[in-house]
Amino acid sequence: MKILIVGPAWVGDMMMVQVLFKLLHQQNPNCELHVLAPKWSEALLSRMPEVKKSIVLPFSHGQLQLKKRFQFAKQLRAEKYDQAIVLPNSLKSALIPYWANIPKRTGWIGEYRFGLLNDARRLNKKLFPKMIDRFAALAFPCNTLLPANLPIPSLQIKKENIDVALQQYDLISSAKNKILALCPGAEFGPSKCWPAKYYAQVANQKLNEGWSVWIFGSANDRVIAEEIQMRTERRCTNLAGKTVLSDAVDLLSLATVVVTNDSGLMHIAAALDRNVIAIYGSTSPDFTPPLSDKAKILKLNLDCQPCFQRQCPLKHHNCMKLLLPAMVLENF
After folding, report:
1. Distance CA 297, CA 278 (A)
2. What is the pTM of this model?
3. 292 closest CA partner among 139, 155, 187
4. Residue ranges of the alpha helices (H) in 171-232?
5. Residue 170 to residues 24, 164, 175, 225, 297: CA-CA distances in angstroms?
C-alpha cells in the first residue's frame, strides 16, 4: 500500500499529523507513506520514522499556478500511489492527487471538492472536536469511531547534531545548567502571544536561580525575543531567527522546561517529551492541545475566550495580560 499525504502548511499541524501516520502504520505496517509538503517540513518529517519519503511542494503558500500543478501531478503518476489523503481543506490542495490519477482520494469536503475527492467526508465537529481527531479519522473508513487512546507525536533526535549545534551556537557552557526554553512567538498573530515583559520576569527568576535561558523562534520573532533580552540584561541566549528548524528540534530536546505560547514549537516540545507550560489566550486547548502527559496548560476563562482572531477584537488582550508570571512560575 503506497499512500501520498498532502500535508498542512503550519508547523503545529504537521506535528499533529504524525498521529495519522502512526495509525496508518498500525493498520498496515508495510504501508509506504510519502508526504507532499513545504520545504521547511523536511526537518520534521525526517524525524518521523513512519514517513518513507518527503516531497517538496514546489509552490509558495497561496499560489494557484494551475499549469505547473498539472505538470507536477503528471510526474507523480510514475509513483503509482494507491491512495492520497488530502489534509488541507483548500480546492487547490486536491488538484494534484486528482491529476496524478491516484485511484482513492480521501479528505474532508472542505471547499466543495466533490469529484476531486472520491472518498470525501463531511466533518462532524461534535464527533471530532480536536484537530488531531480530524487528522486521525482519515486513517479509517468513513463513520468509524476513533479508538479511545490515539498515539501521540514523537520526534527522533540526532545526538551527533546536538553536539554540533551546541558548539555552533556557543551553548556548551550554558547546557551544563538546567535549561529554560522560551518560545514567545506565534505565526498566527499577536493575539496568541504572552507579553514579552512577562516572559522576561519568568526568565529573570530562573536566571537568578542558576538556570540557563534559551529563546527560540523564527525570524518573525526577533522583535519580541530582543525585548526579552533587553529586560533580562542580555543574560539569555537569543536563538530566534538564528537556528534552522532541525537544530531547534535537537536543542529543544535538552530543555528542562519549555514555556510557550500555542505555537508550532509548543507541539515540537511536546513531541520531544519535554516539560511544557503552554499558555493559551485567543485559541483553545480543546482544539489544539499539546499532546503530552508532561504538558501543563495555563488559560484564563474569560467570557471573550477563545476568539480565534489574529488581533484582540476588544483591544485589551486581557486573556494574556491577566495571566501573570507568578501563575507560570508556580507550575515549574
Report:
1. 5
2. 0.96
3. 155
4. 196-208, 222-231
5. 41, 10, 10, 18, 32
For 272, phi then psi, to 5°, come to: -95, 5
Q: What cell was used for 44? A: 520534521
Mean pLDDT split into 10-residue runs, the chain, 332 residues: 97 98 97 97 98 92 85 98 97 95 96 91 94 98 93 97 98 98 90 97 99 97 97 98 97 99 97 98 96 97 96 96 98 97
Q: Is 162 helix (H, G, I), strand (E, B) or coil?
A: helix
User: Residue 85: exposed, middle, or buried by beta-carbon count in 10 A (0-12, 13-18, 19+)?
Assistant: buried
Domains and CATH numbers, the chain: 2-137 (3.40.50.2000), 159-329 (3.40.50.2000)
Q: Compute the Cα dihedral for 298, 302, 308, 309 and give only its sign.
A: negative
Q: Could you give the CA distance from residue 187 to residue 143 in angstroms, rounded to a whole number?
A: 33
One-letter amino acid at 128 equals F
Three-state DSSP class for 71? helix
Q: Report the alpha-carbon distance of residue 282 to residue 74 in Å, rounded.
A: 42
Contact 137, 116 (CB under 8 A): no
Q: How does DSSP assign 244-264, residue by residue?
A: -HHHHHHHHTT-SEEEEESSH
3-state per-residue secondary structure call for 10-62: CHHHHHHHHHHHHHHHHHCCCCEEEEEECHHHHHHHCCCCCEEEEEECCCCCC
Distance CA 82, CA 201 (A): 54
Q: Alpha-carbon distance 218 to 136, whole Å?
A: 29
User: Please, are residues 153 and 19 in contact by the beta-carbon 8 Å criterion?
Assistant: yes
Query: Pick from 294, 297, 254, 246: which is nearest to 270 by CA?
Result: 294
By the 8 A CB rule, do 211 and 181 touch?
no
* Contact of 118 with 100, CB cutoff 8 Å: no
Strands 237-238 and 119-121: unpaired
